[in-house]
Amino acid sequence: MTDVRVRRIYDPIEPDDGQRVLVDGLWPRGVAKSTAELDDWCKAVAPSKELRTWFGHDPSRLDEFRRRYRAELAEPGRSAALDELTERARRGRLTLLTATKDLELSHAPLVAEAVMRDVAERS
């Protein structure tokens, strides 16, 4: 069974996090690269600057953000990066990290959803 978690990078590191991958396009403020304990930084799956700016974490734009972001994930570069995350998830627990304050208004759950769907389709 695939286990993909979404957490904030500011949360304490858990021993059972598995592979820890940052999925934001920008490095999070106040986090030292030396202490982040990341296995990877997958910038390619982050929303475009234009989409991120338009959305602004406005709950009234969430549905449209999700639609637009899913379209971005289908683009070749992002799709290839998503494939790499899928392969990581097939090998064990994957924890996707973001700096976003409200995970429900974040792109990270959509990345997790796409990874889990891809793993299920390839099984």
Structural description of this entry:
With 123 residues, this protein is α/β, with parallel strands linked by helices. It has one domain. Helix content is 40%, strand content 13%. The chain has 4 helices and 4 strands. It has helices spanning 49-55, 62-73, 76-90, 108-122, and strands at 4-8, 19-22, 40-41, 94-98. Strands 1-4-2-3 form a 4-stranded parallel sheet, with helices on one face. Helix 3 (76-90) packs across helix 4. It is globular and about 35 Å long. The model has no long low-confidence stretch (mean pLDDT 95).
Observed structural traits:
4 helices
Question: Helices and strands in order, then pairings?
Answer:
Layout: E1 4-8, E2 19-22, E3 40-41, H1 49-55, H2 62-73, H3 76-90, E4 94-98, H4 108-122
Parallel strand pairs: 1-4, 2-3, 2-4
Brief write-up:
Helix content is 40%, strand content 13%. With 123 residues, it is an alpha/beta fold. The chain has one domain.
